Amino acid sequence: MGAFVISKKDEDHYKFVYTSRKGKIVFTSMTYELKMDCESDIEIIKANAETALCLKFRASSGKYFYKLIINSKIYAISRKFNTELRLAKGISEVALYVSKAETLDFTGADIFADID
């Protein structure tokens, strides 16, 4: 099972990534000004994961990716995949695992602090 990881970006904006069971980033959210909006969208994605639309695209580099869309709103953009088969596997992971994923909040943690 994967996990949603919330982090704080520059200029006090928030974002989340969904990581696979192996720790690889599957998709990344848009940015949010408020953490509660970020958390709310995670819950919307979890609740609608099985019916979410994953609209497929091909980048100019030839790699494939998808946009995660629920009720006409784009919630996240996937990482780039080398083949259509890997893209299909990435999309199937959304339907299978996202609704059961835990949420980890790293916005207040200083994970690089010196330990005395």
What does this structure look like?
InterPro entries: YegP-like_sf. This is DUF1508 domain-containing protein. The chain has a single domain (3-104), classed as PH-domain like (Roll). 24% of the residues lie in helices and 34% in strands. The chain has helices at 35-48, 84-97, and strands spanning 3-8, 14-19, 25-29, 53-58, 64-70, 73-78, 102-105. It has a 7-stranded mixed β-sheet.
Q: What structural keywords apply?
A:
single chain; 116 residues; alpha+beta; seven-stranded mixed beta sheet; globular; DUF1508 domain-containing protein; YegP-like_sf
Strand content: 25-35%
Judging by the overall fold, what is the CATH architecture? Answer: Roll
- Provide the low-confidence segments as ranges: none
**H and E string:** EEEHEEEHE
The first-level CATH class name = Mainly Beta
Count of DSSP-assigned helices? 2
Secondary structure tally: strands: 7
- Lateral strand order in the biggest sheet: 4-5-6-3-2-1-7
CATH topology: PH-domain like
Round the mean pLDDT to the nearest integer and report it.
90
Biggest sheet details: 7 strands, mixed
The CA-CA distance between the termini, in Å, is: 34 Å
- Judged by helices, strands and strand pairing, the structural class is alpha+beta
- Count of domain modules: 1
Q: Which bin fits the share of residues in helices?
A: 10-25%
Structural shape: globular
Report Rg: 15 Å
